[in-house]
Amino acid sequence: MLTVNDLCKRYSSGVWKKSYTQAVAHVSFHIEKGKVLGIVGESGSGKSTIAQCITRLVEPSSGEIIFRGEEITRMKAGKLNKYRRNMQMIFQDPDSALDPKMTISESLEEALKLNQCHYSAEERKRKTDELIALVGLNAEHKNRYPHQLSGGQNQRVVLARALSFDPELLIADEPTASLDVSVQAQILTLLKTIQREKELTMLLISHDMEIVRRVCDEVIVMYRGEAVEKGRVESVFGNPQHVYTRLLLDCNEENVKKWIDYKKEKGKRGNKNEE
Ligand SMILES: Nc1ncnc2c1ncn2[C@@H]1O[C@H](COP(=O)(O)OP(=O)(O)OP(=O)(O)O)[C@@H](O)[C@H]1O
């Protein structure tokens, strides 16, 4: 489905005195159809740059990106737009991804108008209702504006918009990072359920090893622009070879413990996990 070969991205900045950042250095991987690949690493390790190169939001400095058998790094704008519809991205902050002046159903109908132009107005309405149900929202949310929904509910709408394109590849860049811990779990479960049902190929970017462990089939560990370790999640997590992977796993055990304590505490107080 997607093959990345020897991808490099070097940013330059400064006008008089140029400085360079090697954001991604010689990264290669392959994702099979219907599988989920996780990219983990600390802040600044190059995770988002890889996603932006794949969608050509930034131009790679060198390397190959082959999507459904076609090399896309040199693809011209017209053809590229067609390809981009097949690869949708969702980001950390759902609020900034939605138009504050549109209700949820308007937002979804607009997306359908853009990418499924053969639909009649009636079909768009029906499809909108289907998408709303698919992401676990209900009719009462339809006529609300983004500020009238919670962060988790807005992230569901963002996911519904992305799915309205019927993408083959979904790139989720820290999709739960801005959400409350209890809501994070719900959104991750939803993502995984939809990914399985639709056999979506997914690239999940996260700095959280536990999220990757729960959702992904394979993982790449990024450190300062390089992929220092990659493989099946159970083998990388069960038998990490690189010292940096071990460090990340240790850090995250702390987070997992905090999460378990938080859930226990919440359970004691009798709170339900609500958005
Ligand atoms: N437009 C840009 N111009 C110059 N340098 C950039 C630009 N975008 C990113 N960088 C640099 O490239 C490196 C990789 O950034 P990137 O955003 O890909 O990392 P990341 O792992 O996704 O980080 P985070 O988890 O914080 O989002 C960083 O050192 C960053 O400062």
UniProtKB/TrEMBL annotation:
InterPro entries: AAA+_ATPase, ABC_transp_ATP-bind, ABC_transporter-like_ATP-bd, P-loop_NTPase. PROSITE patterns: ABC_TRANSPORTER_2 (PS50893). One of its GO terms (molecular function) is ATP binding. It comes from the Bacteria. Pfam families: ABC_tran. Keywords: ATP-binding, Nucleotide-binding, Transport. This is ABC transporter ATP-binding protein. It comes from Blautia celeris.
